[in-house]
Amino acid sequence: MRTVFTTQGLLFFLLLVGMAACSSSDQQTSDPAQAADPTYTRQRIVVSDSLHRGRILDRHDSVLVDTRPQYLLKLPRRLLDTLALGQLLGWDSTTVRQRLADALPYGRASAGYPIQLRLTAREAERVRRDSSATALQKLVLTQQRQRVYTTNAGAPVLGYLGAEAQSFYRQARRTQRGRFYRLRNGGVETYYNGLLTGHHGYLHPLVDAQGNQHGTWAQDTIFQQGQDIHLTIDAKLQAYAEKLLGGRKGYLVALDPSTGEILAYVSAPVYPASTITAPDQAGVRTQLLQDADMPLLNRPAMLANPPGSVFKLVNAAAALQLGAISPTTGFRCDQSLVRCVHHHPQANSLTAGLQYSCNPYFYQVMQQLINRVPDSLAQDSAAARHANLALWRRYVRSFGLDSVLGTDVAREAPGFLPTPAYYDKTRGTKQWTYRSIYSLSIGQGEINLTGLQMANMAAIVANRGWYYLPHLVRSVGNNGPLPRFREKHHTLIDSANFAALLPGMVAVMQRGGTAEASSLSDVGITVAGKTGTVQNDEGDDHAAFVGFAPADNPKIAVAVYLENAGFGATAAAPCAVLVMEKYLRGSIAPKRKRWERRIQSRAERAPLIKAPPKKPVVADSVSH
C-alpha cells in the first residue's frame, strides 16, 4: 500500500511540474537555441515602414474616399460673433446659421458645447491670415489626417471607419434604433477594414548579450501596406440614381448580370456619405437617427418585403419546370378567384399573362402546381399539397432566396419563403387548402425578398438561369474580387423555361403592357421588365419593378422598390428605365427630359422627417 502511494505522489508531482512549465511564457519556446541557453533575449522588432490606409475608388478609378489633411476650426459658443465669423470665412449669414445648427446635436445644446467646423484649404488660410485682426480671438485652427469623401453619393456603400465614428456611436446609444444602426451600416470601410488598413511587419529574433542573433522565437510577419479597394460602383450612375429617389423611401439596385457587379446601390432617403464621421454634422446625425423614415437603414440588404407581381416571374419559371403549365397555357381572368384591377384582353398564353400581369391567371398557374396529385399520393390530397409546396420552395430557393446571399455588406437579411410546416402551425391544421395560401401566386402574403435578392432575380432571368453573387468590390489592390464572387451558381430550372419568360417581359414594355409608357424603343433599346404593386396594410401601396436591357444581350439589370408610391408601372418603372438609359447611352433622350425633371423634383420635395402614416382601411389583395 505504501509503494502505491509513493508512485501516485510522484506522478502527481511530475504532472504539476509539467503544467507549470507549459503555463510559463518565459520558458515556452519552439527554438532549441533558447532552450539550450536561457541567457538569450526575445525581441520583437517592428518593420519601420509606416502604414497608410488604402483608398476607395469606383469602377472607373475615380477616388471616392481617401485619407487626407482636414482643417477643423474650433470655436467657443459664448459671445460668438456670427457676423464676424461669416466675414472671416466668406460665408453669408444663412450659411453661418446652418453650419452652426448642423454642428450641434440638438437645438438647446449648452453654451459650453464645443463646435468644430470643417474648412477648405482656402478658408483655413483666411483664418490664419485674418483672425488676429477680428473680434474672434479664441479661434483654434487644427489640421489632422482623416478619411475624406470626395462624393456625397453612396453612403451605405462607402460606410465609415469605426475609429472616426465614435461621436455617432455616442449619439446612437441615446436612441432606440442606435444599436441596430451601429451594427449594420459600416459599408466597405468596415467589411474590408483589414485589407484597407494593412498590417505591420514584425521580426522575432533571439539575441545574446553581445547582440548576436540565434534564430527566432516566433514566426516573422511580413509588412503589408493598406490596399486600395476598387468598387464595382459607377460613381456617376450612383449619383444619378440617388437624384431619382432622393428623400423618398425605397431602394434601387442595378448590377451587371454577366458578372454580379453592382453598378448602383441606393438606399433612400439618401444622405451625404460623410455625415456619420464629420465632426460638424452632429445635428444632422440626430435628425437621421430620429427620422421615422429610417434613412440610416440599409434598405437593399436589410429590408425584406413582399415583392408583389414581380415574383410572378419566379412562379412561372417553377411551374414550367414542374410541368404545371406550358408557354401556351391560357386561363380565364376569373375575378371570383382574385381581383384584377384593370381590364385587359384574355390571357391565352404565358406571354399575355405577364404582359397584362393578370392576377387570376397566376392564381391558376400556382393552383395547377400546388393541387397536382401525383399517383403515389392519389388518396391523400393534403399530403400532395404539402409535397408540392415543398417542391415549389426547393426550386424557388435555388434563386438564392430564403437565405443570405453572401454579398460584401456588413449585414444582410435572408428574406422568407413559407414551408408546409409553417402553414400547419399558423393555420392550426394540416388540412389547409390552396385557397388559404393563394397570395403566394402574386408575390404577397408570407413571401419576403430583399432588394439584393430582387436584383439578383432579374439577373438570373437575364442569364437564363445562372448568376454570380452580387458584390460591391471589383478588386482588392491588384487582385480581383474575393474568390466566392467568381463562382457561378445555377438554379434548378432549365434555360429554356427562362427563355419562355422573355416574350412576356418584353411585351410588358410595349403597347398594351403594364409599363408601355416606360419603353426605350425610341432610342433602340429593348427592355424586358415586370411591374409590381404591393398591397400595404399600413399605408399606400408599394411600387416595384425588375428588368434588364438590352433584352437580347443584357448589360444591366435593375430592381426598384418605392414605399407608399402606388403603382409599379407609374412610380418604379420610370426610375429603372432612366437608370438603364443613363448607363447604356450616357444621357437621357429629350423625349424623357421632362419626365426626368418631374421625378427628380418629386424626390427633392420629399421631406427629411415625416410623421408615421395613419393606418388605413385594409383593401383586397392587389398586385400589378
Automatic annotation (TrEMBL):
It is found in: Membrane. Residues 250-576 form the Penicillin-binding protein transpeptidase domain. Its main location: membrane. Keywords: Antibiotic resistance, Carboxypeptidase, Hydrolase, Membrane, Protease, Signal. It comes from the Bacteria. Residues 1-20 form the signal peptide. Its EC number is 3.5.2.6. It is an enzyme of class 3 (hydrolase). It catalyses: a beta-lactam + H2O = a substituted beta-amino acid. The keyword Magnesium does not apply. InterPro entries: Beta-lactam/transpept (IPR050515), Beta-lactam/transpept-like (IPR012338), PBP_dimer (IPR005311), PBP_dimer_sf (IPR036138), PCN-bd_Tpept (IPR001460). Gene3D superfamilies: DD-peptidase/beta-lactamase superfamily, Penicillin-binding protein 2a (Domain 2). Pfam families: PBP_dimer (PF03717), Transpeptidase (PF00905). Residues 604-624 are annotated as: Disordered. Residues 52-214 form the Penicillin-binding protein dimerisation domain. The keyword Membrane applies. Belongs to the class-D beta-lactamase family. PANTHER family: BETA-LACTAMASE YBXI-RELATED, PEPTIDOGLYCAN D,D-TRANSPEPTIDASE. This is beta-lactamase.
